[in-house]
Amino acid sequence: MATRKERARFIKAPQGLKQRAVNYKTGLELNLTDEVRSKIEATIMESKDEFSNEVLGKLREMRRLAAEAETDEFQRIFILNNITDLAFDVKGMGGTFGFPLLTHLAKSLHDFMGKMALPNDRQFEVISIHIDSLYVVLARGITGVGGRLEKELLDSLRIAVDKTQDPVE
Asked: Coil, strand, or helix at residue 29?
């Protein structure tokens, strides 16, 4: 057992780690200048179509799984876990590509499903409304947080979630 206290030591990161964190081939530096920030934003915007296709695929899978969960009681809990995971994926992607409303809706769905055991008919309806709302935001290309109508949608979903979620034990 050591009796004297050692001072904290700072260990400098190896150069290889810095090279992996920063792409020297394209000239991006650690300090984000306006020019570098513009390049990053342009890359994100170029990926927007790919993002939309990926989210659309996840939404189709959510809708398919929700329909399957309504008819297959034995697999219901596993199916619902998959929907929860897909909602988490969409939640993480929306803000990056200028769809924060998509993120809010996916977070609402994810949080709602994460707190329930096996959903009843009313809860299934709330899940379906969330999925349909995600479709509308993506199909209409609603960027930003939307306007008055979108705020009302979020408020209505919040009320539906509060009314139908499982009671806390």
From this structure: coil
